[in-house]
Amino acid sequence: MPYVSEFTKFMNGWLEEHPEELRTRQEGRALWWDKPQDPAVQQSNATSRVPQKPYPYFSMD
């Protein structure tokens, strides 16, 4: 049997008692993270990125 932390046990029990929180968690994730990705936009962003010099807040001039 794999190790399960006390916190994980607590959260699993709490989520069993409050199943509505799973829906709320999924809605929150969809709001911020689960967005459709456009490969053309990702490629444009990658190619237009300007390399940053190391230690931008420290001038050696």
DSSP summary: helix tally: 3
Q: Which range does the strand content fall in?
A: under 5%
Question: Which consecutive residue ranges, at least 5 long each, have pLDDT under 50?
Answer: none
Give me the count of strands.
0
Helix and strand sequence: HHH
| Helical percentage | 55-70%
InterPro entries: DUF3460
Pfam families: DUF3460
Biased composition (Polar residues): 40-50
Region (Disordered): 34-61
In short, what is this structure?
The protein is mainly α. The protein contains three helices and no strands.
Give an account of the 3D structure.
This protein is an all-alpha fold and 61 residues long. The chain is 56% helix and 0% strand. It is built from three helices and no strands. The chain has helices spanning 6-17, 20-32, 39-47. The radius of gyration is 22 Å and the shape is elongated. The chain starts with 5 loop residues before the first helix and ends in a 14-residue tail after the last helix. The model has no long low-confidence stretch (mean pLDDT 88).
